[in-house]
Design brief:
It is a single chain. Helix content is 23%, strand content 27%. With 256 residues, the chain is α/β, with parallel strands linked by helices. It has one domain: Ribonuclease Z/Hydroxyacylglutathione hydrolase-like (Metallo-beta-lactamase, Chain A). The chain has a 7-stranded mixed sheet. Strands 9-10-11-12-13-14-15 form a 7-stranded mixed sheet, with helices on one face. Strand 12, helix 5 and strand 13 form a beta-alpha-beta unit.
Length: 256
Amino acid sequence: MKITLLPSNTGPNAIASRQYATSFLINNHVAIDAGSLGYWRSPAEQAAVRHLFISHTHMDHVASLPIFLENVIGLADSPVVAYASAAVQECLRGDMFAGRLWANFLELTHDGKPFVILRTLESGQSVEVEGLRITAVAVNHTVPTVGYIIEEPGATVVIPSDTGPTEEIWQRAGRLQNLKAVFLEATFPNALAPLADITRHLTPSTFVSQMQKLPPSVRFLAVHLKANCAEEVAAELLGYGLPNLEIATFGTAYEF
């Protein structure tokens, strides 16, 4: 399994440690979230993504969704299939594609083909696409949010998305064979723990507490470090000296 955290800033002055928006590319043809997907590389390269899984509706996870759908229309034989909960779909219909922020790509067609096909995927449900089995699991965030367990023969990876301390996804993951890695958020430094509690995010301290719910053989890659305090969060995480903890880098194809 190959997973890439897509960059969310570009150009000669881009700072690699800054993450403004979130998208993961899996095996070239599957993406989780569209925060930065529509700004990544060329439309032809984006069009290789045939299946998109949306965790929740906060803008750093869906900001480039309309751009992505517009970029890839007509570049593949079939439309993109997007998987999301009913709560996420309600927001997309009522807000993002309601004709004010963007045209209604959920209903419009191009050359007789839809821009996107929506499929409902609720917590506890699984779908098989591109040789992967992907299971949605509810996590602890301020809006309805699911993380994803991604399985293929020989490897399982967990991407919980935005969450505070949570339980079910770790319980499910711990029962699976070949669990290789977790891409887990660490948003705020420890000094901002009250803010993390209110917004249901993790600090380095609570990140480490979540790590302890899985075996020490599992590799943890920290993502979603808040841009204005990324160095502080990274230093605190690495200060724990845990051999299975690292800061994920953008554009790196991690293989499991």
